[in-house]
Structures are given as C-alpha cells and as structure tokens.
Design brief:
heterotrimer; A mainly alpha (288); B alpha/beta (240); C mainly alpha (299); A: 288 residues; mainly alpha; two-stranded antiparallel ribbon; C: 299 residues; globular
Chain lengths: 288, 240, 299
Amino acid sequence: MIQIIFNGFVTGIVITLPALAITLLFGVLKFPNFAVGAMLTLAAYIVFTLNVLFELNLFISTIIAAIFFGFFLIVIDQITFAKLRVSGSNSITLMVCSLGLGFVLENIARLIYGNNAKSFAIELARPFFFLDIRMNREQMITIIVSTLAMVFMYVLLKHMSIGRAMRAVSDNTSLSLVRGIDSPLIIRWTWFISGVLLTIGGVLIGMDRAIEPPMGSSYLIAIFAAAILGGLGSPLGAFVGSLVIGIVSELSTLVIPPNYRIGIPLAVIALILIFRPQGIFGKPNIKK
Amino acid sequence: MKPFFVSSDLRAGYGAGDILKGISFEIEQGKVMTVIGPNGSGKSTLIKTLAGLLKPSGGEIFINEEPISSYTAPQRIKLGMSYVPQEYNVFRNMTVKENLQLANEFMGRSKKKKTKIIDDDLLELFPEIPAKFDTLAGNLSGGQRQMVAFACALAYKPEILLLDEPSAGLSPKYMGDIFEAVKKVNKLGVTIFMVEQNAIEALQISDNCIVMANGKIKFVSDAKTLSESSDLHSLYLGDS
Amino acid sequence: MLSFIVLMSLVICFSAILALALNFQWGLGGMINFGLAGLYALGAYACAIFILKLNMGFLSSTLLAMLIVSLVCALISIVTLRVSEEDYFAIVTLGVGEMLRLVVLNEDWLTGGALGLSGIPRPFSSIIPSDIYIYFFLAAYVFVLFFCIFLINILARSAFGRTMRAIREDDVVAATLGKNLLWARARIFAIGGLLIGLAGSMHAFYYQYIDPTQFSNIVVAYAIMAVIAGGKGSNFGVVIGSILIMLLLEGSRFLKEIIPGLGSDQLSAVRIIIIGVGLILVLIYKPNGFMKEYRLSVQ
C-alpha cells in the first residue's frame, strides 16, 4: 500500500512542473493552453537529440535545451498568440489556436523523429529499497529535481521582483500597466520560464517511459486536472493538485484497469466543476 | 508660461464610433483640474485615454509640449504621470506590502530605487497603512483600498496625478480623508486631474473645472465661480 | 473523374453534418466541443456495432447511435452546468473525447481495438442494383444533409432559437437568466450530439470499415476550419467551408508526388502540420470581426 502511495507521489511530482507552467500561462494569458502536451514532447525530443545524437550528458543537454526552448516559446508566442492578443481575441480563439499549435508541434516531432519509441542515454541502475519501499534512481532524480524546481519557483514568485510582476499581471493586467509594469515583457518572461519548466518536465517524463510523439499529449488531461484541482492560477495549487492526482490515479489501479487511468483526472475535473469550480486555492474568477 | 498638460482635440472610443468627440483643454503646472458631468458623458473614457489604457482615434496629448498619445501607459509613468483607476485599483491577491513593493520597483523614473517600503511623506498622508502590511489587498474595506491605491500611485512623486472618481463608494469619513490627501499632495507640487461625481466636494479643492456632456466639453470655468453659481445642479444634470 | 466527384461529395455530406453540429453547439450555444473526434467515433462505432453484432436494421442502428451520442453530450453539459466558462468546458470535452477513444482502443471484444470493425453494409445495398447504387447513396446523403440544414433552421427560427440568440447578443440578460440558460445550453449540446451521431453513422456506412485512426483529434480542426472558412456561421456557409477544407485535404494527398521519399507516417504528419498551420492562419487572418460577430445565423 505504501508502495502504491509512493508511486503515486512520484507520478504526481512528475506532472508538477507542467501543471505549474499551465497555471502560470493561464494566470498571465487568461486561457488554458492545449499545446502544452506537445510542448513537453518536443522539448523531450530536443534533449534527446543533444543527449543521444550529440552524446552530451543528460544534465547538460537539459540545461541547453531548456534555455533554447524558453526562447523558442517566446518566438512561437510572437507569431501566434501575440497576434491574436493584439486583435483582441477572446479565450475560445486562443484555445483553438493552442489546439492547432499542439497538432503542429507534435507532428513536427513525428516528422523529424518518426513514430518509433526512443529513450535517453542514461546508465541503467538497479532499483533499491528504502524503508521497504522499492525505488529506482530515476524516481529519486525526479523527486529531487522537481522539488528543487518548485522551491526555486516559490522563491521567484514570492520574493523576486519579476515574480511579483508576474503575479500582478495575472491579478489585473490593466492595473499592472499603470503601475509601470511592461506587460509584454512579463509575458515573454512567463513563456521563457514555462519553456524551462516544460523542458525539465519533458525530461522527467522521458526518463520514466518511452519518448514518442503522443507522449506529452497523453498527460494533458492529468496536467489540466492537477492545475484545476489546485486552482487555475495558483502555483501552490499546481503542486498540491499534482500530488493528489498522482496518488489517486495510482490508488485507482487497484479497482480500475490501468488503461483507463485517464478517467481519474477526468472524474476529478468533473467533481471539482460541480462542487468547487475555483479549485482548492483558486479565487472565483472575475473576468473583466 | 506654457501650459504643462494639454489635450488637443482628443477623440477616442471602444469600437463603433467615438465616445470622446474632440476634447481640448490645458492645465497649468501645480493646478487642480476637475471634470464633472453626468453618467455617459465620457469622463471615464477621457481619463483612460489620458492614462494610456485606450488608444485615441484622433487628437494629441502633451506633457511639457511632448506628444504622448503614442506612448504606452508604463512609458507615460516614466514621464511623470500616475493614475489611480476607479475600481480594481489594487492587486487583490497580493498583500498591501507587496502592492507597495511593486510600485517601488516599477514606477521609478531614475535608476535610484526606494529602500523603504513606504517613506515618511506617504506615511504622514496614510498612517493606517503599515498596520495592514500583511493583509491581502482584496480583504480591505473600500476606503482602505483607496488609501493603498493612492499610496502606490504616489510611490515616486509624480508630475501629474490622474484620479478617476476617488471618492466613489466611500463613506463620508473616507471621502473627506481622500480629498484632504489630494489637497496635501497638490501642495507638494503635483498637478492633479480628477474626474468626479461628487462635484461640490471636489470643487472645494479644485482650481479649475470642466463640465462634460455627450463626449464634448460643455464649458470650462474656474472652480470658485462654478461652485458659487446656483446653476450647479442643473449643470450637473446636463441640462445646459 | 465522375466517380471521384461522387465519392468526394459523399464525404463532404457527412463531414458537413459534423461541421454543422459544431456550428450549432458553438454558434448557438457558445460551447466549443474539443471532444468532437471522440463523439464522432462513438457514433460510428455504436452504429457499426448495432448492425454487425446485434443485427439491427440500418435505420434503427443510426437512430440509436444518434441517441447515445446525444445522451453523452447531455451528460457533459450537466456536469459543467455550474461553470459557464468556456475554458473548463473545452477541457472537459477534450477529456471525454480522449476517454471515448481509449474505450474504442481497449475494448477489443466490442470494437475490434486497433483493428477496427469491417464489413459494414450500406443501407439497401442488397435491394438496389449495384451499378446504380452509388447514385442512390449520393442522393440519400445529399437529402439527409439538406434535411438537417432545414431542421436546424427551423429550430434556430423557433422561440427557443430566438431566445438563445437574444441571449448571445446580451451578456447581462444571460447572467440574469442563470439556470434556465444553462438548461437551454444542455439541450443545444444534446441536439448537436444527435447530428454528431448521424455524421458518425454516415461515416461508417460510407467507408464500410472503421478503425481508431480515422478519428484522431485533427477532426475537430477540420470542423472548426470549415465553420470559419464558411464565414459568419451560416449553415450554408458551413457547407461551403466543408467543401473548401475537403479540397485542401485532397490536395494535400498529392504531396506524395511533390516531395519524394516521404514515408507514409511522415506524409500524414506533414498533412496534419498543414491543417494545424492552416487553422492558426485562419484564426489570425480570419474574415474581419468573425469571432466577435460569430453567431448561428439564419437564412
């Protein structure tokens, strides 16, 4: 039983960073981004290229890829969502655009790398036992990296000027303008940070399972569920929500066939929407 | 002496047709200008256009003869403009302290940033604020929020302060406090541009007044003459 | 050449009905259905299963399939009843669509899993002589398409439709109507579901063989593009849009000639990229004011 909870904890912590990216993007851009799954996939493939084809160490590959992907997302935003923001588009337009973008990114990956599963070049390590719980090295890395990233994000958002500015833009975009905050700059920063988070997230997922084109998209509903459960726009919520989704999903395999695990995040979304639409930490949304 | 703040044939709207139909006025440095008029006269649209939240469709705005209508709101702040919106004028999900920190961090006009969260001049104007530092701005009362909004706008002494209905929805106590604060700020040399519903109180502290209706300026007058005029009420209802 | 046009026309007929369903749910009800592909699959598989495994007639299979999809749509709508935000609705529909496709993939005993179901007979194919059957088939499909448009127009013009359009014009009215609005939207979504089920059944009869790959998520991109390309949300516009999108799709098949050396996987990836880019471009450069004025319009 403890083993299942531990596995669920790891499953949850894997989606913590993408859930945080979704919640940051939602806060600043005001719409749920359906391309995030494909972005995870593409980022993982970029790391794969550096790691396997250029034979760089996985850690270095991730750092290089993360910086590249951060800039890449800024460019993507400039040629798609930014144009729609200028013409005053509503959130459905932006959602549809993100859906289309997801198709494009996922299939660029498919075009370049094909449909066969790939994996990172890391040494095999034997699982070990700690307090009667079976763990492997990848899981430890995942836990440590995710936790460090979350702590860093917490410090960024709560104690750094850029983080305050991001929260301000999320809270009230027009007020932030008249308080001297350059909203377009903050948006670019948010994309960059999301790019880094998604790259790390993509690598953690890729360590856990095979890298293939539909990889990221298969997590999309779980990521949304985590962010919605925690409250869209609340970073702490993304963290808590992810862990809950992870643990509940693992526990559900006791009663539901593993293939239908996606049903759990979906059911969670449904329950949240019925009983508490703003999630655990969210505020009821005032759409201006 | 060249006027400090000038609006020249300003036009603006939200899409189908202009709400502002050619607004022109001048304000001398250090003066208090109040705009009054019935609902729908375009007062709110005017102040949003001046602040940089709405792009004008025609006309120009000048600060010290520099045309600013193509500048973004943050750019206007760098020129010394500051704006307090009517509602949603604090970041509700952030604490009072964080609201002030943000203003300190982003509204500065020179490289020098403030060291204290709220410096002594502001403390004198808004002594109740430090007690609420760790309260979420959204949990404050209307009057307290207004004080915080003010303090943020004054983080760096602006050249001109735009106020959108500062007394709206406030209890008489807070209303008095706010107009007191406006007067004190003006005494420090800040030019004030104020849109107000509470015409009588506003005129007490104003130098000049504009009456608007239907997107145009009905007339301009100095505040003293206007407040003494018995026609104030009919004016206010937009009859003339 | 003639047979090519006939076949294209058949595909356009049920693709247009699918786009009409999206147009109805989105234009009148303001609900964007990202689960379109999964619901479409549900309609097709339900119809095929009734015919192949339960030996039901084609009419009853189709009607039952329509009903099932409609019920699922009603369920989705009720779950999101409390939330009027489009964002959450889109996420839920996406999730449901994914669930449905998972069921199709995993329940081999019912759906044939990845292999799908084959040997679906076409309506009346045993009665009508095979050399003229295709023309009968085409006539039937075109008739069904126009009948759907006719019914949708009647519905849109009815008191119900007028109320919904008035609500779309004025958000304040919508807010004050509260619960009634939400139930009305549930009905709209359910009616849209009937159309999706119909399109799915027609898909099954046309191809006579269905498998999961025919129902990938890109289907919703086609439908959205058809609606936008047709402009202004009018039903005939949607049909025109469907024709345009079909031409785009068929045209992209010729990529194989232009770009040699592309494997079939890569070819389909390129086609999807083209559709995705096309969707984004249409959104950015759309007919002026499309989104702001987008309502279901009535001829």
